[in-house]
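for the writeup, i need someone to sanity check this before i put it in the appendix. the sequnce is what the collaborator sent (i think, or maybe the updated version? ugh). structure was predicted straight from it, no edits. if anything looks off just tell me and ill rerun, i have time this weekend
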Amino acid sequence: MILILKKNPDMKACEELKEWLGKQHVTVKETVGKERTIWGLLGDTSEIDADRLKALKIVESVKRMEEPYKKASRHLHEEDTKIRVGDVTIGGEELCVIAGPCSVETKDQILKVAESVRRSGANILRGGAFKPRTSPYSFQGKQEEGIRLLEMAKEQTGLPIVTEIMEISQLPLFENVDIIQVGARNMQNFALLKELGMQHKPVLLKRGMNATYEEWLMSAEYIMAEGNEQVILCERGIRTFETYTRNTLDLTAVPVLKKLTHLPIIVDPSHGTGRADLVPDMALASVASGAHGVMIEVHPDPEHAWSDGEQSISTEEFAKLNPRLQGLRQWM
């Protein structure tokens, strides 16, 4: 339920209403905008009489929400959420470019990539330390050592780092990680999402390969319901009948999600296509669709990458691509 208050409402009456709502086991999420103040009522509001609320002098109108996600809904938060990470604001007018290898392999590799993408204008360094793989015999990542190497790259270049968490027990290792990534396979790992909701750092939530928009937003709601509203949505392709590409990159998600939610949304064309030759065009298309950022896999030698080399572009290719991405954003 949403209450839109009249201009300059009586503060005493507001406090009395909040106290009464609390007795109904309903909490208030208040959003103060330039023109009006909105109260989102969180909890079971089915027994609350809307007509009784409409009759109050401080209330302009009452609406019942149809969306099951409350905190993620744009109805309760009209202005875009902006998340500051390092020198970039994700969700603002500037384009956030996250770049780096699929997996951290060696000290030389991650430092070389980090320095290269920094020079080419990347804002954030990505790199997998824990790697969820379809086959148990595939490279599973350097794990704790991988995070240590990412921290070294962060110290050397100044770039914030983002890497994927697999389970709650790994959380102590992420103390110096700037953005915690939740991969597609863990999008509905609700215990993990709740735990991340208790943290005070941004969470990059990738869309599950079969997830609807509503399911994706409900996963974000699990994080936000615990108090952490720094959630970044990442479209990374969905599974369809098409086999030419690894996944089908759903760029419709960008304008749709920007209508449904205030949370920033970025796009991962590397996983979205699985083909390095398609990454530049789809990265540009992501920016053109209105995405707040892109996440691109970059490797100094893709042919010899330990994982997902076929979808990684070279550091030289990234150096050519990023100015085009930035130019397109400025043109828009």
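The CA atoms of residues 197 and 223 lie 4 Å apart. The two ends are 36 Å apart (CA to CA).
thx in advance!!
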